[in-house]
Design a protein that fits this description.
0% helix
């Protein structure tokens, strides 16, 4: 089973940038398709982006396309989410996950002030 730990969240002003990291351990990280999701209180968890083990096969939700970029470094067992031009509506808890089977990290909070 893979363990995932997210980091890099915080408070940022609208228009700013953050890079989230997700460190994996305990499994064959380099074989998994990886993804990022987010969740606001009282709402369903929302898919944001995913990519294959090779770093290809990326896909993005329309809400973040052109602003967020997913990438990975298999040598470091880490997947990243670069977030640019952040908006107040991006405020949420952000989670990384293996896509199949689905293992989740504990989440990291991102707050965007207007």
């Amino acid at each position: 089973q893979v363990q995932l730990v997210e980091s890099g969240g915080g408070l940022v002003q609208a228009g700013g940038s953050l890079r989230l990291s997700c460190a994996a351990s305990g499994g064959s990280f380099s074989t998994y398709r990886m993804g990022w999701f987010r969740q606001e209180p009282g709402k369903a968890r929302e898919f944001l982006a995913a990519l294959n083990w090779s770093g290809g096969g990326t896909n993005y939700a329309d809400s973040v396309k052109g602003r967020f970029t997913i990438s990975r470094d298999n040598a470091k067992n880490t997947v990243y989410l670069q977030m640019n031009n952040l908006k107040p509506e991006d405020t949420a808890t952000y989670y990384c996950a293996t896509m199949t089977p689905r293992y989740w990290g504990q989440g990291t909070q991102v707050t965007v002030s207007s």
